[in-house]
Amino acid sequence: MIIFEQMRALYTVIIFVFCFSTQLFAQDNELLLAKQYNANGEPQKALEIYQKLYKQNNENYYSVYVNTLLNLKKFDEAENITKKLIRRHPDDHQYAIMMGNIYTQEGNMNKADAIYDDLIKSLPADQGEISALASQFYQSANIDYAIKIFQQGRKLLKNDNAFTYELINLYRFKRDKVSLTDEYLNFLPQNPNFINQAENAFSNVYEGSADYDMLKTALLRRIQKDPQQTIYADLLTWQYLQQKEFDLALNQALALSRRQNDDGNSIYDLCRTFITNEAYDEAIRGYEYIISKGKTTPLYIPAKIELINTKNLKVTSGKYLPEDLLGLEKDYNDLLTEFGRNSSTAFAMQKLANLQAFKLHKLKDAQKLLEDAIKLSDIKPTLLADCKLDLGDIYLLNNQPWEATLLYSQVEKDFPATAIGQDAVFRNAKMAYYTGDFTWAKGQLDVLKVATSQLIANDALNLLLLIQDNLAADSSGAALKMYARADLQIFAQNPEKAVMILDSIGKKFPNNALDDDIMMSKSRILIQQKDYAGAVSLLKKIVEEHPADLWADDAVFMLGDIYENRLNDKTTAKTYYQKIITDYPGSLWINEARKRFRLLRGDKPDAS
């Protein structure tokens, strides 16, 4: 009998579980059906299902039921069921917030605000309850009242620093620039490690110079009130950088460094930012400040080296005056005098030799300097290889091709299947091209088409196509040899001689196939000379007259780059980047053009 009773009880449980599971399964199916009705634009059918489920299981389906009522503008029904739940659960604020939402959608803002204001008035001085209520407002997409809850919570808790993280996130979400700025400026003095986070937040929210001016005004006001607070000075320097007011940024940083009497670390880091932005004069001034602190400071030698490197960058970027060249040469010589010619200063010997060879055209001095450099003991293998390659180039310019090819071949042998080794092969191939040995050059370039270095592979392919196309039109290669001589003068940075030869090709060989090549060479010379209008004219001519030839996509991309970065015409730049995407999908520039186009269109940098 006992066994029978136990079995009957077990059977009852099984039946209950089965029925309950069946009911849940049926409800899940009905929910899926309701979602499908909504997706198909049949909200009334979905409402009927939600209403049925709400009556069966009451509050579990309240949210989807009431939102469907609101979508169908059945405000009275939504009010009635919500009022019942408010009476049933007076301490559960989600129903009061939903009632406010109902009034809002109905257009009755006064009633909605009255409900929300009552919630704020009855707010207890309890951090957990304050956070919970604000979270409910946030989840109902009512950001403004979530902020008011936190602000009232600060008053109740008598703590102006409470809920800082929450408010910062809400201001960011709302893109409330003024409030976000004030919140961070209040927060940072006690939490200086968050300055990078603040800068990132400002970068994402600020939209132009007016916003950065607002930050500057706020910072200057706070600095005047509390001049000892360095975090505001640091942030002001950052603000100047965003506005590209590099001179002001440096002045601000120098004033802070002098006040703190530090070792110049912050200035050293700032100079790297200047260099990235090609603000070479400011970087030079910054390094000179560090050097002026004396030889005993830890950054004296690094600053002295970086000072010279920056001056070199200024020269190689074309942003220099003629007297800058001799000043830079003197700086290098002074460095070598102070620290000697050894493995530690070999990099300076290499840079000085390049300056002498390609800017000052002192080929003999440059050759002697690099010959001394490659004889140094303990020089790093990669630096030794670079010195040999540069010395090979100078031998080539000094009309010593055999010595040049010997050095290129040594590097190729010492660094097989590496970027340095492939660079050596490419220089050997270019030497053959310069000297008119196109057959040998083609053999080397054909191998480099699949080089691991993308840059070398691209350059090798372009040179190979140049040779092949022109030999197909003129098997003797007479015009191409003349063009190669002009190319060598461009390499040697003798633009006047190069242009003279380029202009002579058409006269001597009127039916040559080098028209677009000549225009491309001239346009590159004009860019180096900062004659952007002249370069644009030639590049447009390449695109119009040779749209399917070797340099067409290069010309289009270069036009985009000039308009974007030199002529400050973003709209025109965008059209050329788009032309690469639409007209030249196989171009080597496609990825860079796509990235720049999206940035100019206003996409976020990480957009895919």
What layout of secondary structure does this protein have?
Elements: H1 2-39, H2 43-57, H3 62-71, H4 75-88, H5 93-106, H6 109-121, H7 127-139, H8 143-157, H9 164-174, H10 177-187, H11 195-205, H12 209-225, H13 230-242, H14 246-260, H15 265-276, H16 280-292, H17 300-316, H18 322-339, H19 346-358, H20 363-373, H21 381-397, H22 401-414, H23 419-434, H24 438-448, H25 454-473, H26 478-491, H27 495-508, H28 515-528, H29 532-545, H30 552-565, H31 570-583, H32 590-601
Helix pairs in contact: 1-2, 2-3, 3-4, 4-5, 5-6, 7-8, 8-9, 9-10, 10-12, 12-13, 13-14, 14-15, 14-16, 15-16, 16-17, 17-18, 18-19, 19-20, 19-21, 20-21, 21-22, 21-23, 22-23, 23-24, 23-25, 24-25, 26-27, 27-28, 28-29, 29-30, 30-31, 31-32
Organism: Mucilaginibacter gossypiicola
Keywords: Repeat, TPR repeat
Protein name: Tetratricopeptide repeat-containing protein
Stretches where pLDDT is under 50 for at least 5 consecutive residues are: 9-26
Distance between the termini: 73 Å
Radius of gyration: 36 Å
Look at the structure and give the CATH class of the domain at 513-607.
Answer: Mainly Alpha
The CATH topology of the domain at 513-607 is what? Serine Threonine Protein Phosphatase 5, Tetratricopeptide repeat
Tally of helical runs: 32
| SSE-based structural type | mainly alpha
CATH homologous superfamily title of the domain at 513-607:
Tetratricopeptide repeat domain
Whole-number mean pLDDT: 86
Amount of beta strand: under 5%
Principal-axis shape: elongated
Give the proportion of residues in helices: over 70%
Largest sheet: none
If classified by CATH, what would the architecture of the domain at 513-607 be? Alpha Horseshoe
Based on DSSP secondary structure assignment, what is the total number of beta strands?
A: 0
